[in-house]
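Sequence in, structure out. Go.
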Amino acid sequence: MGRYITTTGTAGSVVRTISTTYSALVNDRIICTAGGFNISLPSSNTAIDGDTIQVIDATGAFGASNVTLLRTGSSLPNIMGQAADLLLNISYCAVTLTYTTAYGWIVSGK
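Output:
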């Protein structure tokens, strides 16, 4: 994958390999090696327009053992226009979410 240049002026992103509950940071690329846990998205207090989070099911675990993306923060920004968390339940999926102050987290790639 190439590099991202974000509105924060940082080139690239941080790749994190996880297999348990995690609190995502803006511009994380999260490679999951297991399922059955939650990932908390950055709150609207820390995210700015154009920030991204990418979640990748590297081992195909999500189909049998789901991962849930949780809304966090005092204002609980929406995910895809819904005031609800997002369940990832497709094996080998790769989801990219982009933050906007107007709409919250939007799935911008899969």
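Check: DSSP finds no helices and nine strands in the chain. The CA atoms of residues 74 and 95 lie 24 Å apart.
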